[in-house]
Amino acid sequence: MRLIGGFLHLDGRPAEASRLLAMAAAMTPSASGPGSPPRIVSHVEGPVALLTLDFTSGTAEEGSAPGGDDLVLAADIRLDEPDQARNEAGLATLLTEAGESGLRRLAGDFAFAAWNRRDRTLLCARDGFGVRPFFFAHRPDDLFVFASLPRGLFATGLIKRSVDPDYLVSELLFQFDGPERSLFKRVERLPPGGWLRLAPGARIHSGVHWRPDSAMAGSRRIGPRDAAAELSWLTQQAVRRRLPAAGPVAAHLSGGMDSSAITIVAARALCPAGREVLAYSHSPGPFSSYRFGGNGPYIAPVLQQEPDVNWQPVQIGDPAAFVLPEMDPDQLFPLDASHRESRVFADAAARGASMLLSGWGGDEGASYRGGGVLMEALLRGHWLYLAAELRAAGAIRPALGGLAPLLLPETVRTVARRLAGRPSSSPGIAVLAAGLMRAEAVAGRVLSQPVKPLEARRMRHSLLTGHGLTRRVEQWALLGARYGMAAGFPMLDRRLVEFALSLPSWLFVSGGWSRRVFRDAMEGVLPEELRWKPTKVDLMAEDPVHVAAQRPLLARRLAALREREVIAGLFDLDAVAAWLADLPSADILARTIETGQGDWPAVERAGSLMRAFRVMAYLEQHG
Fold first, then answer.
1. What is the rounded CA–CA span in Å between residue 455 and residue 381?
2. Which one of 72, 194, 282, 429 is least enclosed by Cβ atoms within 10 Å?
3. 543-552 pLDDT, tens per residue?
């Protein structure tokens, strides 16, 4: 794992080495992890200063920035192709020869800044899904400063740290404005697949080197057997490319097909060589009858099939700290030891792992769940396929009911539910969250849910290019950085994503099964009971129950939070108190979640309260 940073004085004044050292100190984790302390690689030349913190070297020695006579790099890269650019020297050669046009040839996970000594330009780029983070601040004709972690920017003293309240509101309301925004004023993200180039005394240039192509969606003509064979090979290659050269590897094992396939492929690659796969499963607490993270019947066969896998169940640590956690100063995400992901990274780092593999991104690509597939068949006149799938599903009326949300406006469906005596649908996350906030904080915002495309091919492309995917992988990257660990996402491998996106939609729903092409591809990899599992359990379903269980603690904390002006100005704390007081008991909420029957709106309100209290905790600690 590596972290990068640096700055360029656009007015041409000399860069200060002391600012670079302050940036390095701020981004070096205090937690003990593999390769910690990092090797500090720096370069100061005229108006530019570049920094790389290398956690894989196992030494705290200082070194010179890689590159050639013409180019100097600060790079956090894991490149798959082209072959000649898989290390810093090869990347420097490619960029020297081709500039930003060479970025289109890069596949892998990367974020870097390259200083060209000849034309005095700085080229920055980020991979297509934002697996490696890149934050920056730009003052035209004055300053450009960048870092893997926001706290690195502020440590230089070149920009002031200021939380953006409007961003907090957007996050709570799920009204994301774009991938460029960040939690802090005047700090931006380099968008996934984006690049920018700038130089002293010149204007900034920017563009996109790669994003999933909408024209590619559903364009390939291929049969199910060939599609499954190619998908199997690409999936296994994607996992193997992300395995580090030494040491154990951590992996999420949720009981889902994606994480299980990744764990199994990694184990088969590493265990014969005496290397270990640490498989982490989220396990529910005392309020749930589920075991093995709600997916016990599917995790157990993986462990039986791959006995060398070192299984590590992970539970919430301190339930009180879970609802009022210590928050990461760089993002709206807990870093508290009570939080599951923090516990995973801390344990894996202590065992010597430098990489965490996750199945995130599979639902949107290779193991697409099938939303909009039948609608696409309906709209495109594929009647025989549609009829066959409705028959195979075993229940035509429920299948047609699944199409209704895409055929009828919400107002019509609401009236129909009332006439049938059924409850109205949820008001939506945005409307629900708005009930906890002051009216002026949400004034002028349209509290609507995003409109989903009707057809599966468009829906698949929309999911792969949505902000939610990037934000989630970035959360893991920022959290892992505290332990000197990187996060890898084989299901977001560029080759795998492009192939999956190109497949005809009907391959994902066949014979009455969703995710069909991935199920077929994982024959011989996944245990059969997992390969043909019919359902998927929400591993975070019990989280709202902890809010109800900690209601007295939250009520006391709310009274103290009323004294914080920034919090009282953002939230309607009387509404928060009323929602909290009206929550059912933890046992009632747990039964509702497990059975799907009961006061479901109360579960949703508890979930919104959890999000609100975490924002309040962030503002109290870092605002």
1. 12
2. 429
3. 889 999 999 9
